[in-house]
């Protein structure tokens, strides 16, 4: 969706397949710097770092070699960065430069948010604005007329799906981050909700 209105601004990147890890890395944060030992000094801004959130997949193109044309092919770690983020560490004309990167905790304002899409028998929930670890290992849903938590499968990236008939019911979510912490968002979605709505919690990892 619109990453800017979702609160990510322009500090975002699409990750190559090896880093994106089938969507498990979506939402994680990385500190990136130009590698001045390997980069052409003309295109490197040494001593500067930028922290980005992984928000997309940079898809591989197997018709091109991974070291000359398609940098997102396995086994290459690659960040396809939003231009303003990229220009913090490199000169635009450089195109692709060697970088050093490190996974770091995400710092976010406010609580975890949930956007609901889909249709009557297919609920798709996008989980975003996740601090600390940034990514979600598992997600469960419980409706107001049930005492049982039901697992939600990963659809793609940070989107989880349920095939249960949950339309219009008050919903609770249970999230476990990839570092093993669990939060319960009781009745975060009120009865009578509609597709396309976003619900902001006051809880954060």
CATH architectural name of the largest domain: Beta Barrel
Strand content: 35-45%
- Give the distance, in angstroms, between the N- and C-terminal Cα atoms: 23 Å
Helicity range? under 10%
Compute the average pLDDT. Answer: 93
The overall strand count is 13
Would you mind describing this structure in some detail?
One of its GO terms (cellular component) is membrane. Its main location: secreted. The chain has 205 residues and is mainly β. The chain has two domains: 3-104, RlpA-like domain (Barwin-like endoglucanases), CATH 2.40.40.10; 112-201, Expansin, cellulose-binding-like domain (Immunoglobulin-like, Sandwich), CATH 2.60.40.760. Helices cover 5% and strands 39% of the residues. It has helices at 17-20, 83-89, and strands at residues 12-15, 29-34, 49-57, 79-81, 99-104, 113-119, 122-128, 136-143, 150-156, 159-162, 171-177, 182-189, 198-200. The strands form two sheets. The protein has an eight-stranded antiparallel sheet, with no helix packed on it. Strands 4-1-3-2-5 form a five-stranded mixed sheet. The chain starts with 11 loop residues before the first strand and ends in a 5-residue tail after the last strand. The relative contact order is 0.18.
């Amino acid at each position: 969706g619109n990453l800017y209105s979702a609160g990510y601004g322009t500090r975002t990147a699409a990750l190559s397949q090896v880093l994106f890890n089938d969507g498990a890395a979506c939402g994680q944060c990385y500190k990136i710097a130009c590698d001045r030992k390997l980069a052409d000094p003309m295109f490197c801004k040494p001593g500067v770092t930028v922290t980005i959130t992984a928000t997309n997949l940079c898809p591989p193109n197997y018709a091109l070699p991974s070291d000359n044309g398609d940098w997102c092919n396995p086994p290459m770690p690659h960040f396809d960065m939003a231009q303003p983020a990229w220009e913090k560490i490199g000169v635009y004309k450089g195109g692709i430069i060697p970088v050093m990167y490190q996974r770091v905790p995400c710092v976010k304002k406010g609580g975890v948010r949930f956007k609901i899409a889909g249709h009557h028998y297919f609920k798709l929930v996008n989980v975003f604005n996740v601090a600390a670890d940034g990514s979600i290992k598992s997600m469960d849903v419980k409706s107001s007329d049930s005492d049982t938590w039901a697992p939600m499968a990963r659809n793609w990236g940070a989107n989880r799906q349920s095939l249960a008939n949950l339309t219009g019911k008050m919903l609770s979510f249970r999230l476990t981050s990839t570092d093993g912490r669990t939060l319960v968002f009781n009745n975060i979605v009120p009865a009578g909700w509609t597709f396309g709505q976003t619900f902001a919690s006051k809880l954060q990892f």
